[in-house]
Amino acid sequence: MTNFQDLSKIDQENFLMSKIIKALRKLGGKSFTKELSDEVVDATEEIPEEYAKLLITSKKGNEYHPFAYTFNFAVKYLLLAGFLKRPIRGTVELTEKGRTCLLDEFDPDEQVRKFADPHWRRPRKRELTDPKSGVDGADSDDEDNQVNNWKDQLAIALSNFTPAKFELFARALVKNMGVTLDESIGVSLTGDGGLDGFGYLTTDDFRTARVAIQAKRWQGLVSSPEIDKFRGAMDKYNAEYGVFITTSDFTRDAIKASRVGTRVITLINGDKIADLVAKYQIYTHPVTTYVLEDYYNNEQ
């Protein structure tokens, strides 16, 4: 089995096209672009998790994700070839062509590139095809780049937090999610039984459950042994639910471990943190802006 990162950029794009269509079908035919990217990585063993999250600094000092760069171009080609469409900003949806194509007979060159290349608005210059220039596929998907810009800023800010500040942030996050925090468990900076927080969640039918909280400000991926240790800490306080929050992401094995047994652990990675920060406006506020559509780019 050839690893994804060993393929040429064009072969990577071709490889991803059918995976993108398959993942969208699993997600119901419509998805946020980032959600789609995560689903493709989770479902594809040929794409190493470390490579999918890899962040590189170019010669010009710009940071970029090689996988995101390639993924964006694969999506762009599928859009131009009519397999996908954008119903609203930041989302992609399967067209009838995308819903009905036979993936077992899918040929990226004949079915996608042959139709997309004539519609490509500008040549794929070196700065677009060579990620070393520092372009993270931004020109291939400007709208998504604008949407994710503030999320990148948030990720950098969280990575600079001290462990103590991040734990406080995590407790603020779950508090806004409806958890009433316990004032005696998991609030000391020295740690408390392996927990970073503990609280109670009351559902609409007035049932109250104990919730254990773990917060990790990590650079690398959280592995399954960390999930197992957290589950042990949950046992100490008879917690029915667990919430594991990290600035990075989780390995495939960690995701599987979180779903084992009768007590499923909710995993919140860096992307989901950003979604929750926006939803509850935690130390942030929305700014309204407008993006001109193609109508304004045409003289006639």
From TrEMBL:
Keywords, ordered alphabetically: Hydrolase
Domain Restriction endonuclease type IV Mrr: 159-276
Superkingdom of the organism of origin: Bacteria
One GO biological process term: DNA restriction-modification system
Xref: InterPro entries: Mrr-like_N_dom (IPR025745), Restrct_endonuc-II-like (IPR011335), Restrct_endonuc_IV_Mrr (IPR007560), tRNA_endonuc-like_dom_sf (IPR011856), Type_IV_Methyl-Rstrct_Enzyme (IPR052906)
SUPFAM superfamilies recorded: Restriction endonuclease-like
Keyword Membrane listed: no
Region annotation (Disordered) ranges: 123-146
Transmembrane stretches, start-end: none
GO molecular function: DNA binding; restriction endodeoxyribonuclease activity
Residue span(s) of domain Restriction system protein Mrr-like N-terminal: 16-102
Name the record gives this protein: Mrr restriction system protein
Species annotation: Paucilactobacillus vaccinostercus DSM 20634
